[in-house]
Each structure stands twice: as C-alpha cells, then as structure tokens.
Amino acid sequence: AQSVAQPEDQVNVAEGNPLTVKCTYSVSGNPYLFWYVQYPNRGLQFLLKYITGDNLVKGSYGFEAEFNKSQTSFHLKKPSALVSDSALYFCAVRDMANTDKLIFGTGTRLQVFP
Amino acid sequence: DAGVIQSPRHEVTEMGQEVTLRCKPISGHDYLFWYRQTMMRGLELLIYFNNNVPIDDSGMPEDRFSAKMPNASFSTLKIQPSEPRDSAVYFCASSLPGRQETQYFGPGTRLLVL
C-alpha cells in the first residue's frame, strides 16, 4: 500500500533560520509526491509536487523539497523561515494503484518564533 | 474566481438530526473531493467524484453518510442521523481535468454534534 510518514508532530525554528519538515514515503513504482500547507482556520493549499526530473523541486512562498530515492524521502525546506510560515504542513503521495487519490500524512505543525 | 465555496461554515446540531453540507467547486474543475479532518484521525478522504460520478467512496464511514453531485457545480454531503463522533471539519476540494493531485480546498464546514 502507498503511504507517507511525517515523523515529527511539531517543528520549532527561529525566524531567519533554515527549516526542514520531514517526509518519507512507501510506494510501489515511481512516486508522485506533494506538499500542502494549512493555515489556521483555512483549507489546505498546494505548495509543490514531484513527478519526475530534478530531485530539487521549487514551490510557492520560497519553499522547496528534495526527492531522495535511496532514502525514500521528500523533505520540505526553506532557507530562511518567516513567522508567517507557521502552519500545518502535509506530505502526500498519489495512490497510483488505487484510483489515483492522494494519501496524506498526519501533518507537521511548524512554529516559527520571532 | 471565488474559489471553492462551502456552506454552512459552522453547524451545530443535536444527535440524531440530519446534516447537509454543501459545496460549489471552481468552475471548469471536474474532480470534487470530500475530506474530514479531526485531531484524532487527521485528514481523511471520504469520497471523490469525476465528472459528477463517484469514483471512490471507500472512505465513507458508514451508511449514515451519503454524497451526491447532481451537476458540475454542486455537491452535497449528508449525515443522517448525526452522532457526536461526526464532529469534525469537513472540507470540499476540486481540481482541473487530469490534475487531480493539485487540489483547491474550500474553507471547510466546522460541524459540532451535541
């Protein structure tokens, strides 16, 4: 079965510091991977996706993610965190074996302190 | 475009009552998804439609839940009878043809069943 895991419930980082939100995946075949963000009292918003090609994918709001096949990871990164980046981040994988729906991870709460 | 529209934004009801949640997808989108989000279970896909046809309803918890999409611009999720464990935030999302992984979420309906 296709799945993603987000090992950290919460990540704390100081403003201006680099941030990493971790995601590992388990799929059969080539993975289609995604990051979404949820701000308080809002629906999820698409950030970026990896389908094929370059292992470093750039997305919205200065975020990027690095696909690492050997480590089965797709970590979300940003060189310099902003307080406004504080939100809930979801990693997701497309379930190619079963109707192509997205399977979301449990989410990681990012807290950026001034 | 106004984005995905959901109504009501908040609903408080008593156990046993019927609850109907409504969604208007973005014009031109032919995928529509219903999700449920709780602290305990995270984000769960309940059902999704393509061109008004249900594709995967494996996430619908039980027969008390039903969803319809009578046309391309409207969908409902009905709970009858409602129970306290149905309390959650329900999100509707839509996506463009062939782009079901890039989903646009509505603001959600916060449901409280007393």
Strand content of chain A: over 45%
SSE string of chain B: EEEEEEEEEEE
How many H/I helices of chain A? 0
Instruction: Supply the helix-strand structural class of chain A.
Output: mainly beta
Q: First CA to last CA of chain B: what distance?
A: 36 Å
The helix fraction of chain A, in percent, is: under 10%
Rg of chain B is 13 Å
| Helix percentage range of chain B | under 10%
Along the chain, the helix and strand elements of chain A come as EEEEEEEEEEEE
Please tally the helical runs of chain B, counting DSSP H or I stretches of 4 or more residues.
Answer: 0
Distance between termini of chain A?
A: 41 Å
Give the tally of β-strands of chain A. 12
> Could you tell me the strand content of chain B as a percent range?
over 45%
How would you state the average pLDDT of chain B, rounded? 94
The major sheet of chain A is characterized as: 6 strands, mixed
The largest contact between protein chains, plus residue counts on each side, is: A-B, 23 and 19 residues
Q: What oligomeric state is this? A: heterodimer
Shape category of chain B: globular
Radius of gyration of chain A: 13 Å
Helix/strand structural class of chain B: mainly beta
Detail the poorly predicted runs of chain B.
none
Protein model, in words:
The complex is a heterodimer of chains A (114) and B (114). Helix content of chain A is 0%, strand content 51%. Chain A is mainly beta. In chain A, strand 7 (56-58) and strand 8 form a beta hairpin. With 114 residues, chain B is mainly beta. The A-B interface holds A 32, 34, 36, 41-46, 49, 90, 92, 94, 98-107 and B 4, 33, 42-43, 45, 48, 55-56, 91, 93, 100-108.
